[in-house]
Amino acid sequence: MTLFDEAASTHRASAPLAVRMRPASIEEVVGQESALAPGAPLRGLLEPHAGTASSSVSVILWGPPGTGKTTLASLVSLASGRVFTELSAVTAGVKDVRSIIDQARDRLSMQGRGTVLFIDEVHRFSKAQQDALLPAVENGWVTLIAATTENPSFSVIAPLLSRSVVVTLAPLTDRDLQALVRRAIADPRGLGGRVRVADDAVEAIARVSMGDARRALTALEAAAAPVLRMHAERGTGPVDGLGDAPVDAADVPEVGLHHVEVAVQHAAIRYDRDGDQHYDVVSAFIKSVRGSDPDAALHYLARMLQAGEDPRFVARRLMILASEDIGMADPMVLQTATAAAQAVALVGMPEAQIILAHATIHAALAAKSNAVVMAIGEAAQDVRSGRVGVVPPWLRDAHYPGAADLGHGRGYAYPHDLPGGVAAQQYLPDALVGVRYYRPTNHGSEAAWAQVAERLAGLRMSRPAPPAGPAEPLGWDGSR
Fold this sequence. Notes:
Layout: H1 3-14, H2 17-20, H3 41-46, E1 58-62, H4 69-80, E2 83-88, H5 94-111, E3 115-120, H6 127-139, E4 143-148, H7 152-155, H8 158-162, E5 164-168, H9 174-186, E6 196-197, H10 199-209, H11 213-233, E7 254-255, H12 257-264, H13 276-290, H14 294-306, H15 311-326, H16 332-347, H17 352-365, H18 371-384, H19 446-462
Parallel strand pairs: 1-4, 1-5, 2-3, 3-4, 6-7
Helix pairs in contact: 5-6, 9-10, 9-11, 10-11, 10-12, 11-12, 13-14, 14-17, 15-16, 15-17, 16-17
């Protein structure tokens, strides 16, 4: 072994576990089945021998931290034989970008060898920096792989976006992370079997990592380090966990749940995203908001997020709750919940917890009404049971030739032509005349809406129905 090889080996041994365990082939990539499906652009980059047109396409990888963006970029370079060059948008300027592009262009023209340019956190690039990439991408001087944790539609300029394919990477599942952790425990590049890790400790690492592979491997390394150190001090093994495996397998130390809790400074909350804890805590969260207890709601919100629940799931539940349990009693809650869901998608954790707390408190303090959900439920039940009736002739579509001969639209009272903008005419089918689905409460804003609904109902019935006349006039789009 040369001095260079020894130095390289020493560097790999001292590198963080997450770096040592970076996949060396596509087979080692965990998760991202959709992004790596056969025929997908990213798959074409990883299998250039297939001769697909996508083998030189530029790609924007959009996903949360620790989903493999840097790994996939380096694999593209290995698979294609191209030179791999990396820039960080945090430290690189326009001059750096142009220098890399000039080198790539010269390399391509003189050596016929392409370049994979990986730009991490491309959303931090200014417009001028992103503009500098356009000639290289358009002319094929580089294969650009740009990584971002923010929505490219908002963070990447349109010309660059139009010249690239956006590939969305999903957070890794708990099962993916557990498989990754177990591989790192056994793999010679990782801990090489120097420790055993209890099942509940592996599950805890996966939960607290919230879909982030780098975080999971860092947590494993932090939990295993003191165990290996103590084992070495007793004279039974090396400190760093590298080298030959112990002869006696029974002497391998175990990393337990308490080691993980100490290492990550995080209580291992029992919470299975697919099991009883998931449904119980979510149910308690919803019922606490419905019960107007913001403190209890915040407790269960924190419990879900600290256990690794997907914040987008919580945001979706809040949007549903805004109509199901609050509705017209405070219509602004739905706007708050919808805005929160959009913000969570853009921001991600940990800041997303602040946004979800905002929406949770608003929903918990708002007046409550289930009149909306009851209304649509009763209407749907009538439809399912066949209680529908025919559409009154004056409400039927009258824009096509021959409709007037059938009486469609005849006698329709156009509300905008009447004082108050309300027409005294029947809208429900005959079989449902008199039915009231929406029965507003007197809670919060719905009390005022109840008065509006009652007044409008009175106006619709206060004047006799207009006599039969010509069919309704067509609107500007011919659809009235």
